């Protein structure tokens, strides 16, 4: 079986090897200002994640190829997936009949299970995709809810961390994500010693050549409230989630994380998923409906414009890879195959293109650009400018006339309207007054969101998003 899986991985990857590799720029690292991500040679990196949590557990290799091909084509850069999966992942075998651990023991990994994981990681690398690899889902450390069982303590967490770190130490497309939807501390319970031990194992095995973050449960807490000062944590992460309704103030969570020292990047690792039921806990009211593409755009754009180093998209059928083999979780309205080409999945790719069409590092969130206030909830506006003031972007979740203070911007400006729904841009008509400009987007009202892009005319950036 191992030989067949290895041959399969080589065959389906070979057509991608001629493409320029994302991993020719050195290891991933934090920028000098502490807020963003780049490669060792200074090439900027925008984290555009997708939650493929059950990728290794529920898909066979043909299905994994189909999924990764789709995500690479849409411009995703990180696939978040779990080695020891959430849904009875220690006892329910993968599609090749293998469980990850022998005797539920983290010190006895099953080589056959991880051989299949190796193949998927290699497929991702060939498609210029990072794997945001969770060594385990959090219920194996912190039960709270879910199947578990809890199998980790600070001793075997170190052993397992060192083993899995050593296995993937030479893979350039691994980002380590601890946590797995659980807090690091709650009331009198402190699980940080377990996560510290796992991180130490990974760091030692990789000779410090690793990038580590942590995926917390949803709510107001970011990793910054628990483990910001842990030396192994390279990047903060929060989860604005699915259970608090529309327009959770993800922008405030970004700004809070950015205020701490030492400075570390942050991002929303799990905003509301496309086609996820709104507020499904403890019991879903169907009248609440589902989050759709507009909800995805509002949350992803506003967290990035507030100063995050990227953002993660998710689809409710894809994270669980819903299909006829599996039990449905929280009312998915379609299977994963039919979910891959939903509008929000394309539209987050347009966001990445927009951000990469201007100098990507050194962005400065600047609420003072917007005259008259930013607004609240569904109408909340976010804005930023380049460090050299050569451009600015303002996201309007509701299309309406906006007035911009231009004191920090060049005198000669070119204005564009960028449409987050289709990724197209058109030049904008602006009215200039003393120290301000006013502009009205091509369409107005709810679900007509726009980005106003203001460029220094001397720079010649061209249409945004190209």
TrEMBL record:
<dbReference type="InterPro" id="IPR017853">
    <property type="entry name" value="GH"/>
</dbReference>
<dbReference type="Pfam" id="PF13204">
    <property type="entry name" value="Apiosidase"/>
</dbReference>
<dbReference type="InterPro" id="IPR024749">
    <property type="entry name" value="Collagen-bd_put"/>
</dbReference>
<feature type="domain" description="Putative collagen-binding">
    <location>
        <begin position="364"/>
        <end position="455"/>
    </location>
</feature>
<protein>
    <submittedName>
        <fullName>DUF4038 domain-containing protein</fullName>
    </submittedName>
</protein>
<dbReference type="InterPro" id="IPR025277">
    <property type="entry name" value="Apiosidase-like_cat_dom"/>
</dbReference>
<feature type="domain" description="Apiosidase-like catalytic">
    <location>
        <begin position="32"/>
        <end position="360"/>
    </location>
</feature>
<dbReference type="Pfam" id="PF12904">
    <property type="entry name" value="Collagen_bind_2"/>
</dbReference>
């Amino acid at each position: 079986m191992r030989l067949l899986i290895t041959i399969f991985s080589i065959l389906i990857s070979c057509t991608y090897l001629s493409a320029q590799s994302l991993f020719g720029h050195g290891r991933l690292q934090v920028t000098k200002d502490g807020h963003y991500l780049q490669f060792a040679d200074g090439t900027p990196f925008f984290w555009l994640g997708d939650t493929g949590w059950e990728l290794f557990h529920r898909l066979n290799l043909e299905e994994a190829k189909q999924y990764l091909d789709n995500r690479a084509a849409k411009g995703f850069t990180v696939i978040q997936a779990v080695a020891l999966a959430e849904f009875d992942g220690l006892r329910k075998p993968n599609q090749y009949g293998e469980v990850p651990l022998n005797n539920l023991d983290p010190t006895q990994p099953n080589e056959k299970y991880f051989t299949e994981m190796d193949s998927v990681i290699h497929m991702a690398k060939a498609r210029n995709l990072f794997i945001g690899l969770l060594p385990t889902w959090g219920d194996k450390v912190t039960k709270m809810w879910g199947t578990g069982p809890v199998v980790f303590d600070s001793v075997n967490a170190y052993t397992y961390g060192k083993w899995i770190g050593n296995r993937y130490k030479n893979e350039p497309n691994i980002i380590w994500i601890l946590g797995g939807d659980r807090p690091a501390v709650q009331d009198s319970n402190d699980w940080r010693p377990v996560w510290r031990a796992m991180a130490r194992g990974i760091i030692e095995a990789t000779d410090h050549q690793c990038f580590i973050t942590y995926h917390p449960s949803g709510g107001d807490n970011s990793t910054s409230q628990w483990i910001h000062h842990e030396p192994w944590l390279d990047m903060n992460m929060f989860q604005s989630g699915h259970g608090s309704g529309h327009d959770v103030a993800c922008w405030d969570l970004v700004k809070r994380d950015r205020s701490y020292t030492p400075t570390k990047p942050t991002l929303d690792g799990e905003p509301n998923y496309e086609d996820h039921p709104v507020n499904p806990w403890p019991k879903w009211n169907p009248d609440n409906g589902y989050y759709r593409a507009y909800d995805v755009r509002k949350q992803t754009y506003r967290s990035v414009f507030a100063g995050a180093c990227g953002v993660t998209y998710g689809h409710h059928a894809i994270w669980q890879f819903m299909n006829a083999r599996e039990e449905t979780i929280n009312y998915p309205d379609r299977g994963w195959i039919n979910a891959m080409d939903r509008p929000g999945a394309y539209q987050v790719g347009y966001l990445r293109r927009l951000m990469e069409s201007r100098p990507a590092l050194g962005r400065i969130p600047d609420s003072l650009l917007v005259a008259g206030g930013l607004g609240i909830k569904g109408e909340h506006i976010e804005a930023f400018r380049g460090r050299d003031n050569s451009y600015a972007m303002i996201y309007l979740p509701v299309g309406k006339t906006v007035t911009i203070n231009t004191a920090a911007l060049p005198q000669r400006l070119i204005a564009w309207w960028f449409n987050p729904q289709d990724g197209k841009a058109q030049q904008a008509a602006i009215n200039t007054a003393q120290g301000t400009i006013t502009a009205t987007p091509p369409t107005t009202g709810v679900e007509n969101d726009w980005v106003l892009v203001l460029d220094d005319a001397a720079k010649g950036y061209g249409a945004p998003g190209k």
